[in-house]
Automatic annotation (TrEMBL), chain A:
E.C. number(s) listed in UniProt: 7.1.1.2
Catalytic activity of the protein: a ubiquinone + NADH + 5 H(+)(in) = a ubiquinol + NAD(+) + 4 H(+)(out)
Name used for this protein in its record: NADH-ubiquinone oxidoreductase chain 4
Residues passing through the membrane, by range: 21-41, 61-80, 92-110, 116-133, 145-167, 193-216, 223-244, 256-277, 284-303, 309-330, 351-369, 389-412
Domain NADH:ubiquinone oxidoreductase chain 4 N-terminal: 1-109
Xref: InterPro entries: NADH4_N (IPR000260), NADH_Q_OxRdtase_chainM/4 (IPR010227), NADH_UbQ_OxRdtase (IPR003918), ND/Mrp_TM (IPR001750)
Membrane topology: Multi-pass membrane protein
GO BP annotation list: ATP synthesis coupled electron transport; electron transport coupled proton transport
Organism from which the protein derives: Equus asinus
Domain NADH:quinone oxidoreductase/Mrp antiporter transmembrane: 112-397
Entry keyword set: Electron transport, Membrane, Mitochondrion, NAD, Respiratory chain, Translocase, Transmembrane, Transmembrane helix, Transport, Ubiquinone
Subcellular localization: Mitochondrion membrane
Source domain of life: Eukaryota
From TrEMBL, chain B:
Major subcellular site: mitochondrion
Any Gene Ontology CC annotation: mitochondrial inner membrane
Keywords assigned: Electron transport, Membrane, Mitochondrion, Mitochondrion inner membrane, NAD, Respiratory chain, Translocase, Transmembrane, Transmembrane helix, Transport, Ubiquinone
Topology term for the membrane: Multi-pass membrane protein
Designated gene of the protein: ND2
Domain NADH dehydrogenase subunit 2 C-terminal: 290-342
EC number: 7.1.1.2
Any single GO BP term: mitochondrial electron transport, NADH to ubiquinone
Matching InterPro entries: Complex_I_Subunit_2, NADH_DH_su2_C, NADH_UbQ_OxRdtase_chain2, ND/Mrp_TM
Upper classification of the organism: Eukaryota, Metazoa, Chordata, Craniata, Vertebrata
Molecular function via GO: NADH dehydrogenase (ubiquinone) activity
Primary role: Core subunit of the mitochondrial membrane respiratory chain NADH dehydrogenase (Complex I) which catalyzes electron transfer from NADH through the respiratory chain, using ubiquinone as an electron acceptor. Essential for the catalytic activity and assembly of complex I.
Subcellular location: Mitochondrion inner membrane
Protein name, entry field: NADH-ubiquinone oxidoreductase chain 2
């Protein structure tokens, strides 16, 4: 695992020592090479995990997330080149350093064995993200957004720290490799109910679950493009990954404790999808769509069946790629018109036809069109929640319909129709932007040929 | 001030604290406290304005009251145990009175009212000495009598201090008052763990002193005492803004910086001793502290605050000397991987 962590740490001296015209080339190339190394982790030969040391391991759940994380760093760097082009050199280097630091913490989080070190790195990812949102965002609201982001996550996760330490006192070790063999049923008592709550609330805030999701539209909208990409694609998945790991220790309370959260997620998924239909701000629409997809993941994790775990994992990877691509597309609009309002830049298909093709593909995968992996994830979740309770099919079906509605609404508003007369002098698409979209779309389409690798550890 | 006089006074302050920390006779400890108090009054009054006089008077009155309470506790202890040696104080009355006296010296709630007002009235360097050096002597006595302290009183004062330190700092824009409320909150964290594991009190004291030293050095370097003047530093010394960001986030207790280490260890010790609600409450109240630190970083480093056009043409006074800033910055932000080494504090 050090073969991935040390090169990522060394990206930071690379940026500071590169020449002025080489920083983007150097960092993008080397981060692409690092993502190639991480692909070797997808080879999980047996049913168990790949253990590299006492501190790092990778199993079929964390390997795809790790590959997604390392794949996304070069894409973030490519996406940020335009809006940083006018900044002084030191600020560009600072930005890339923040991204590299965030990447290091994320890689270590996904591969940590000790749960305390997972917590510690989970919190550590907040600092670079806060700095990226607040320092390089564009509107005044970013200050408020940073505060909401920081404090929602911290209030949720400090009880998790206390819960993890008390579990360590009870069971003697928090090493994940041990716990999966040692697992015993949690005795039934009030304090164990609070333990369950303390463990789960951190991840519920991070996912985010419907009632605690207020930080997400603010943070996603106000962040610069790399911030939005990493937030949507990876940081939300930290919550899902944490929940998948920690629910193993929390039986049998989960049987009854999960009901309120299931209800909130099922209802929230409909509510946030419906809000998407009324959004004027493009990034805000994509942010609420993230909440809706993650609510599906929460439902899947709380049901705790093998099929739902497969659906949750596949949905996380698929949503990561799709959502990040949608943010890149929205950013390409923003860079040309400097506005996020959807109706201000309509009819782009006539002006930028290749970009319209990417918009079409992204919207189609967002609404879970077969045979994309988005569909596989959603289908597994819908099927397992149907077997858990037949009535949920109504809500799930309604959600799929509304998701299709707003994805097509977004597509048609931005691409089709007559173009607005003030945008006929926008620059054509850069090769960099087309490459960015292609690099997002290609893994998404190729994975539909072999979804086995993203189906997680219950396959 | 005449350098010779200043040297003598500083040496007396130093000597007073050393006498407190090194004695085994209760009377010598009281003498050390008095020596410290009398010698620090001229340092607090270096600026010679009515505000400084008010601050020094308030400081003198509270500390003298505390010393008198300490003397009474010593005499009661003498009456009941017949000896002057420093050991744990066996008599409960004497123990309670001594705890209250030392809490007054440290600035724990409900005796915290003097801390913001005194810190505000004096110069930045005097404030630095007040908030770091002056905490060493009372804390060392608390460390030595820790087995006999009444847990209820100490924990109540600790939790209330964390609450007051967080809540009181929310409405402040004066940097010295912000540092004062931060000191109240940190003293609360330190005394909360005193009965369970005094080594962690020492660890927290060490990290707190390093972070407070760093913050004050950075303030002294930019000669700023209000949030507004601190927000001009991006213009004059941009590197200082990054350092302020790192140190403030470390004081707020965010991983992966070293300010997280004492909080984590304290939560761990408290949880091991089967108190679960207390560390959760303390951790959440520490977020109040984090809020006003983050607000300070917003105006200083994360935004470029509007300033007048000729900021770069401002009067440039001679560069203030900041001693030991690089090691302090490292100590206040990067010490977390060295956590296993805290066993040396035993």
């Amino acid at each position: 695992m050090l073969k991935i962590i040390i090169p990522t740490i060394m990206l930071m001296p690379l940026t500071w020592l590169s020449k002025k015209n080489m920083i983007w080339i150097n960092t993008t190339t080397y981060s692409l090479l690092i993502s190639l190394i991480s692909l070797s982790l997808l080879n999980q030969p047996n049913n168990n995990s790949l253990n590299f040391s006492l501190m790092f391991f990778s199993d079929p759940l964390s390997a795809p997330l790790l590959v997604l994380t390392t794949w996304l760093l070069p894409l973030m760097l490519m996406a940020s080149q335009h809006h940083l082009s006018k900044e002084p050199l030191i600020r560009k280097k600072l930005y890339i350093t923040m991204l590299a630091m965030l990447q290091t913490f994320l890689i270590m989080t996904f591969t940590a064995t000790e749960l305390i070190s997972f917590f510690f790195l989970f919190e550590a990812t907040l600092v670079p993200t806060l700095i990226i949102i607040t320092r390089w965002g564009n509107q005044t609201e970013r200050l408020n957004a940073g505060l909401y982001f920081l404090f929602y996550t911290l209030v949720g996760s400090l009880p998790l720290l206390v819960a993890l330490i008390s579990i360590q006192n009870l069971t003697g070790s928090l090493n994940f490799l041990l716990i999966q063999y040692w697992n015993q049923a949690l005795p039934d008592s009030w304090s164990n109910i609070f333990l369950w709550l303390a463990c789960m609330m951190a991840f519920m805030v991070k996912m985010p679950m419907y009632g605690l999701h207020l930080w997400l539209p603010k943070a996603h909208v106000e962040a610069p493009i790399a911030g939005s990409m990493v937030l949507a694609a990876i940081l939300l998945k930290l919550g899902g990954y944490g929940m998948l790991r920690i629910t193993m220790m929390l039986n049998p309370q989960t049987n009854f404790m999960a009901y309120p959260f299931l209800m909130l997620s099922l209802w929230g998924m409909i509510m946030t999808s419906s809000i998407c239909l009324r959004q004027t701000d493009l990034k805000s629409l994509i942010a609420y769509s993230s909440v809706s997809h993650m609510a599906l993941v929460i439902v899947a994790v709380l049901i705790q069946t093998p099929w739902s775990y497969m659906g949750a994992t596949a949905l996380m990877i698929a949503h990561g790629l799709t959502s990040s691509m949608l943010f890149c597309l929205a950013n390409s609009n923003y860079e040309r018109t400097h506005s996020r309002t959807m109706i201000l830049a309509r009819g782009l298909q006539t002006l930028l036809p290749l970009m319209a093709a990417w918009w079409l593909l992204a919207s189609l995968t967002n609404l879970a069109l077969p045979p994309s992996i988005n569909l596989i994830g959603e289908l597994f979740v819908v099927m397992s929640s149907f077997s858990w309770s037949n009535i949920t099919i109504i809500l799930m079906g309604a959600n799929i319909t509304i998701t299709a509605l707003y994805s097509l609404y977004m597509l048609i508003t931005t691409q089709r129709g007559k173009y607005t007369h003030h945008i006929n002098s926008i620059k054509p698409s850069f090769t960099r932007e087309n490459a960015l979209m292609a690099l997002h779309m290609t893994p998404l389409l190729l994975l539909s040929l072999n979804p086995k690798i993203i189906l997680g550890f219950t396959y | 001030m005449n350098p010779l006089i200043l040297t003598i006074i500083l040496m007396t302050v130093f000597l007073g604290t050393m006498i407190v920390m090194a004695s085994s006779h209760w009377l010598m400890i009281w003498i050390g406290f008095e020596m410290n108090l009398l010698a620090i009054i001229p340092i607090l009054m270096k600026k010679y304005s009515p505000r400084a006089m008010e601050a020094s008077t308030k400081y003198f009155l509270t500390q003298a009251t505390a010393s008198m309470l300490l003397m009474m506790a010593i005499i009661i202890n003498l009456m009941h145990s017949g000896q002057w040696t420093i050991t744990k104080v066996f008599n409960p009355t004497a123990s309670i009175i001594m705890t209250l006296a030392l809490a007054m010296k440290l600035g724990l709630t409900p005796f915290h009212f003097w801390v913001p007002e005194v810190t505000q009235g004096i110069s930045l360097t005097s404030g630095l000495i007040l908030l770091t050096w002056q905490k060493l002597a009372p804390m060392s006595i608390l460390y030595q009598i820790s087995p006999s302290i009444n847990l209820n009183i100490l924990l109540t004062m600790a939790v209330l201090s964390i609450l007051v330190g967080g809540w009181g700092g929310l409405n402040q824009t004066q940097l010295r008052k912000i540092m004062a409320y931060s000191s109240i909150a940190h003293m609360g964290w330190m005394t909360a763990i005193l009965v369970y594991n005094p080594t962690l009190t020492m660890l927290n004291m060490l990290i707190y002193i390093m972070m407070t030293l760093t913050m004050f050095m950075l303030f002294i370097h930019s000669s700023s005492t209000t949030t507004l003047s601190l927000s001009h530093t991006w213009n004059k010394a941009p590197l200082i803004t990054t350092l302020i960001l790192i140190t403030l986030l470390s004081m707020g207790g965010l991983p992966p910086l070293s300010g997280f280490m004492p909080k984590w260890m304290i939560i761990q010790e408290l949880t091991k001793n089967s108190s679960i609600i207390l560390p959760t409450l303390m951790a959440i109240m520490a977020l109040l502290n984090l809020y006003f630190y983050t607000r300070l970083t917003y105006s200083t480093s994360l935004t470029m605050f509007p300033s007048t056009n000729n900021m770069k043409m401002k009067w440039q006074f001679e560069t203030k000397q900041i001693t030991l800033l690089p090691p302090l910055i490292i100590a206040s932000s990067l010490l977390l991987p060295l956590t296993p080494m805290l066993s040396i504090l035993d």
